[in-house]
What does this fold into?
Amino acid sequence: MQSDPKNLLQQNDKLVHSDALKVKSHVQRPQEDWVLHTLMIEGYDVPFRFKRQGKYRTLRGSRVNLTYYPTQEVVAGISMEIMKVVRVKRT
It folds into this structure.
């Protein structure tokens, strides 16, 4: 089932949709029964994270459309901003 970014944006006002972002790095790590994907995007200093059931082929160097919202994560007692991705699509 394809998700429509316009519908997602109408349902939640905190979501942000960006088109044709270039991926600098893509890291995939197992986390319990999931695979945690972390993307670093050109022009952004925060990680974009999402979980999936399996591994993807690498997104490094490709352009992607992302729908995400900002959130905070505490790592070693330090609060840092991350972007939680709800929709990723290779362009």
Summary: The CA atoms of residues 48 and 68 lie 8 Å apart. The mean pLDDT is 89. The first strand starts at residue 16 and ends at 31.
